[in-house]
Specification:
Keywords: Membrane, Transmembrane, Transmembrane helix. With about 260 residues, the protein is an alpha+beta fold. The protein is about 30% helix and about 30% strand. The protein has four helices and eight strands, in the order H-H-E-E-E-E-E-H-H-E-E-E.
């Protein structure tokens, strides 16, 4: 008999617990729906500066004030001191001679003007007996908690054909948990060598990026097929809007016995 009573108490306790949880989530969903409907109604009221009868629509200024306050909060959040990415397992590049040489002919900024950013300048700087520099500055006013990085590489035969190096990565997640495979290590090591000032944990944005980037022999694997290459690079938002994109043309010239396979 006591065991039956104890069992009933446990059952009723569980039922009460699930009932409380159900009521809580139902209330949360209803509250969220009401808030969304209220905000939608406020935005609709504040869509026009004046009422249909020509009088001032004060809701217009209320909506704008709320939007400005939201931007101010974003700025405060993003103005916190950035935390550099911790990545100790990087590759130490050396200037050892290789069986090929890399020559960059030009960098080109593409798809400008951008909807969510402003390209301030984009220059290719050819240097005698030194790597070609890519000097670029982009103003990104929005705060970015997700940022997509996409690279496609092409090899020129009669025309440029896709090369088996294709990268698509969400930068914020990648910085938090970088992969340790050889290609990822190589990519991160190049970034630490060329653009260490942008290697910090998200949020990104709300700033003007000033970058000098280059490619040189030591950044490439031990062996690469000789020929002409093109590389297309994009930085995009979560909504797939281009923040910045560029294209680089370069050639690899063999200085010894040709190898057809990539060797790291």
């Amino acid at each position: 008999m006591p065991s039956d009573v104890a069992g009933q108490v446990i059952v009723y306790s569980l039922l009460l617990f699930f009932m409380v949880v159900t009521v809580f989530f139902s209330y949360a969903i209803i509250l969220h729906t009401e808030q969304a409907q209220m905000w939608r109604s406020i935005k609709e009221r504040g869509a026009m500066r004046t009422m249909p009868n020509g009088t001032t629509n004060y809701w217009y200024y209320i909506v704008r004030a709320i939007a400005v306050m939201g931007k101010m909060l974003e700025v405060v959040y993003c103005n916190e001191k950035p935390i550099p990415v911790y990545y100790p397992n990087r590759i130490a590049f050396t200037n050892d001679s290789k069986s090929f040489s890399v020559r960059v002919t030009r960098f080109i900024c593409t798809e400008a003007p951008y909807e969510v950013s402003e390209l301030l300048y984009c220059k290719t700087v050819l240097r005698r007996n030194k790597p070609t520099f890519f000097n670029v500055s982009v103003h990104v006013p929005m705060v970015l908690n997700k940022l997509y990085f996409n690279v496609k590489t092409y090899y020129r035969l009669n025309d440029y054909q896709a090369f088996p190096i294709d990268i698509l990565v969400e930068v914020c997640a990648y910085f938090r948990n970088p992969s340790e495979d050889i290609f990822s290590r190589h990519l991160m090591s190049i970034m630490f060598e060329t653009v260490p000032q942008v290697l910090y944990y998200c949020p990104h944005g709300n700033t003007t990026y000033i970058i000098s980037y280059w490619l040189e022999d030591k950044f490439f694997p031990k062996s690469m097929p000789a020929g002409d290459y093109r590389q297309d690079v994009w930085f995009r938002t979560e909504e797939n809007k281009t923040i910045f994109s560029y294209r680089v043309f370069f050639s690899i010239r063999r200085m010894g016995i040709f190898r057809s396979l990539i060797e790291w």
